[in-house]
Amino acid sequence: MAARQAAAWCYRGGSISAEPRINDRIRVPEVRLVGPSGEQVGIVPLAKALELAQEYDLDLVEVAANARPPVCKLMDYGKFKYESAMKAREARKNQAHTVIKEMKLRPKIDPHDYDTKKGHVVRFLKQGDKVKITIMFRGREQSRPELGYRLLQRLAEDVQDLGFVESNPKQDGRNMIMVLGPHKKKTEAMAEAREAQAARKAERTGASSADAAEEPAEA
Prior knowledge:
There is one protein chain. By secondary structure, the protein is α/β, with parallel strands linked by helices. The chain has helices spanning 2-14, 46-56, 77-93, 111-126, 145-158, 186-214; strands spanning 30-34, 40-45, 59-64, 71-75, 100-105, 130-136, 163-172, 175-182. A four-stranded mixed β-sheet has the order 2-1-4-3. The longest helix has 29 residues, at 186-214. 15% of the residues are buried. Mean pLDDT is 83; it is low at 1-16.
């Protein structure tokens, strides 16, 4: 019965809000008050806390509803919400997602193709991504697994400054697989990429300003 009543109450739009109670929405006789700078004011009647909020031209915000009495703080709630939203947005922007790229090679790969694919692996590792290297064997090549192993070993040595062997070469049916992990964390790679982009932008801006300064004035 109680569960049905609760469900009906929620359906009617009475679900509990995640927002803290502020100002006249706070319904308790007294609160433990924290000042604007974090100083402890102490336990005061709710009316006194609201009066202080008006004097400071701030909001009274309930920050610990389960405490006895609840803890409230004097703050600019609008500014607090804005700053919190900006911090959350920046955190999402800088969030690092581990990505596994894949590169496929043949045991008897052409030197030019090898250099091209190695270049891709280098780029992935610089970006802070893992790389799954797959050697594909066909026909009689399956009887020569050492060709694939030597190729994977060569590739690992060629990129050892940027990555390391996270998963050693292993046979998987007609394929041989190895996983390379980057030395650099994804967050570090993203930060360096942003710095490089800003530096290039500043360099272009500086060059444009210098060109404009060198243009002769019209007679």
